[in-house]
Amino acid sequence: MTKKAPQAQFNIRLDAELYRKYRAYCADNGLDPVLQIINYIQRLVRTQFNVQEKLWEVMRKED
Fold it and tell me: What whole-number percentage of the chain has pLDDT above 90?
């Protein structure tokens, strides 16, 4: 069996109308609201590290 990575819970506060519209958008498009947030965070982190790695790669080439 594979071990699951430790998980954390976080809470955010946002405008009730914005949240209502977000939930409606997800419902209209058959999307899981929680999964959409997780996917966004994963893409953000991947992009950050890709940019950082590419920057280090360029800097190494300049030396």
Answer: 43
